[in-house]
Amino acid sequence: CLTRNQSPMGLWSLLWRPETIQVKNLKSTRVSSQDLNSPSGKPVTELSVRSFIDMGFTDSQAEQIYESLSSVGGGVAKHVLPTLTALFVLGLNPSSAHKVLEKCPELYSVKETQLQQRISNLRKIGLVEGSLQRVVVHYPRILTVPLKRVKHVVMFLKEKCLFTSQQVTDIIRDCPAVVLEDLNQLEYKFQYVYFRMGIKQAEMVKCRLFRFSLDEVRCRHTFLERRGQYETPDKKGQTTIVNPKLDSVLNVDQDTFLTHVAQASAEEYDVFKRLVSREWREEELQQGRIEPDSDGDDDSDEDEDTGGKSGYGKKRKK
């Protein structure tokens, strides 16, 4: 059995046996499942606060888990123990397992075989011990994503974006939410950074590009570009100025970006963001990518604009 003083990996040695598990106060739901042993050596046949405490959770954690089960209903009861076991066998301690379930209660309804397959696939992608556990704790939703979807994203990054296998591993490790990103947006973001900004794959991975939305990337890059502080490299990869590194453009807070990179005021940047947001929206309307608003609120902030005097208007191609 697993107590608070034992390693979660001790679950490997737990005796499993088919039992009928009852979840109290969940409409007396009884489902067939496997179960964990309590410290007394008796099988856990009933999901209660006491049973969760016996697994190694603190009193407050056990109460929170039990309450969350009450809120999602009795239909998930059959997956509770297999889910907890999968997390413990993965190497998470009760505190980390509680954090995972608190962030992503959807895991209660994932089948045991699906969890095992998804964890196994993450290992195949290249996530080693330590990295795998950190990814699951940081972004537990990755275990709710269908296997085919994750494999599709991995192939997409390799074939469409030409990242190496190791680079894809690093992307999944550092930016796990990428597995749920729209692939059209993902491809556009990659092409924008690669062609417009002249950034190669290695630098994208190093600065964790896929943690940022396309709008965040475009906004900071375009601001620098229109101030003459960033140039698109020519066919030979050369520029007439030294472009700032992608890391210094994205991996800093706004104050640092404005002070040390753009050398501009917050007021200038705020005006620019309003103007460029409207500009991009007009482009999307022209391309038919979005529908026009029926309430006409597109001009609601026009009185805050400077009438184009800021100098951040779109540069027309000659």
Automatic annotation (TrEMBL):
| Biased composition range(s): Acidic residues | 293-305
Cite the entry's keywords alphabetically. Answer: Transit peptide
Tell me a Gene Ontology molecular-function term this record carries. Answer: nucleic acid binding
Q: Which InterPro entries match?
A: MTERF, MTERF_sf
Pfam families per UniProt: mTERF
Which spans does this entry mark as compositional bias, Basic and acidic residues? 282-292
According to the UniProt record, where is the region Disordered? 282-318
Instruction: Give the family per the record.
Output: Belongs to the mTERF family.
- Show the PANTHER family listed in the entry: CGI-12 PROTEIN-RELATED
Q: Write the protein's name.
A: Mitochondrial transcription termination factor 4
Species of the source: Amphilophus citrinellus
